[in-house]
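During the reporting period the student researcher (J.K.) took over the structure-prediction task from the postdoctoral fellow and processed the backlog of single-chain submissions. One of the processed entries is reproduced below for the supervisory committee.
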Amino acid sequence: MKYKAIVFDWDGTLMDSISKIVESMQTSAKHLGYPVPDYDQAKNVIGISLLPALKQLFNVQDEETAMQLFHTYKDHFKDHAQISSPLFTGAIELLETLRQQGYILAVATGKARQGLDHNWHHSNTKHYFSASRTADDAQSKPSPDMLQQLLSELNLSADQVLMVGDTTYDMAMAEAINMDRIGVSFGVHSPDELQKHNPLAVIDALEELLLHV
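J.K. obtained the following structure tokens:
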């Protein structure tokens, strides 16, 4: 085994939740009278923790305004239960295989803790993961804080861990601490954007990860 642990991003990497997040951002803009971002504009900030993502998307600096956006988004996200957020094809099989092979699995996500716990419950996947960091626990990506905290908790060094994600924020935080990284092509950012951070590979399906570990 080349690595002892594999850290996954969640949204856009293991769970196909991009459409639900974008729709919630667009609905929040309509509700508050902001210009409605198009799909690509909203999608591009997915992966950053929610508050800085909303500040960037709507060009808001005022904390009170940003918090209004934050809470409005949360309300609309809960209301969009009709928009499905399934796991990507092959996710369960991949996690099962990796655990059977002896890898420690972890999550580093811009989601809130409550959101990750909710997704874990409904996808019945919590038992696969030994550790996790969310927007409530660490600085937002692309800061490597989430990964550094996970390394400390798992008592591992960066060269013992692989990061898997769909955004340049995932690639950048791993690159900052010289952690190997693999991008997925079916999430937020394009393969060309991911390649700027020198991943080992950009894969087109989750099962392809098994060829690199």
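The committee noted the following: The chain has two domains: 5-16+87-211, 18-79.
J.K. will present the remaining backlog at the next meeting.
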